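Schema walkthrough. Field components (list of strings):
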Amino acid sequence: MSTKNKRKKKQREELAFREVERERAQTLRLRKPTTKQRMLYFFVGLIMNALPTYLFFSIYEMDLLKSLPLFGFVSIICSIILSMGYHNVSFFLKHRLLKKTGVNFQKQRTKKKVAGGEREERQKKQLESSITTQAVSLSLLYNSLFFLVIVLIFAFYITWIFEAHANYILSLAVASSIVTYISSTKIQ
Amino acid sequence: MKILFVILLLLASLVFTEVEQGNLIVEKDILVTTLPHTEEEFTILYTLYNVGNGPVYDVRLQDSDNFPKDKYSTELSQIDTNWDQIEAESNATHAVILKRHSVGSDFLGPATVLFKNTPNGQDLTSTSTYIGRLNFTPKSPGESRKSPNWEHWIIFSVVAALVLVIPFLLFKKSEKKKKRLAMNLRKKK
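Field assembly_structure (string):
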């Protein structure tokens, strides 16, 4: 093979390698949630933890005022764990939905201005944002339902033999951990 | 004859004069829907009915013997109490909230009520109805879990459904928008 061809081949390989690296860096960047997303996931996690807390102080007759520090501490920890699960699933769903649309979301790196290019870019951004909303809402729905089912199974069928406080801690901690662990296996 | 007639009249007036006298009937009742367990509060209600035609004075209710302090503790009120006066054809009530601390069986007998028909008169006694034998067992951890608790489950289900419906509606709304935008972009290609 001539040196010219070898040089061209090397350049093509380098370009492809750089594209892969760029995509990987973008993926890693998108993998981290934004501050808004973190706050949303945490808030929804707190609400999801408050629902079984109501059942514990009404059915298991835990004293609300005396157990308030325990409720608060466990809810905050489990909300943090649950928020990681929410982001994992929304990240996975977003990439899947972006591929399904069949639209190229990468910015064109040309110096020439294409007619109607700005409008197209704006529409792509809108599409990406609606896909993000869809992924986040589906993640919240799926993970919340999954979390509630596991909490109820643990609280009333598996860990009910323990004292009410231990039952509360175990059922919420185990449920949030299972949800987050299963969500992390999806993105691997 | 006249003297005999006057004596007979006096005797008759004594016989037919009404003497105002009070008379107490006491009811002792336990206000529970299910049998109480240890460390669970229950209420005893005493109702004193004055069925006589005169007031009763210095009424003293005594029932501490049925609830010894080593087994029972009172919440908010004492078992023994007193009233200065209960008018005729009226009643008085006294409620006590108690808790038993140990497992066991007790016969809750009648309470004793002492009263007087006149402010400085002799003490008269009345006994109340009794509750009978009660077995106090500890509450098992699964007991509240097994009972229906319908109202709590309904509240939980309604709130959970509301919380889950919001992301579902958001998902449906964004799906429509996504389809429209994706179709527009594909047409331009």
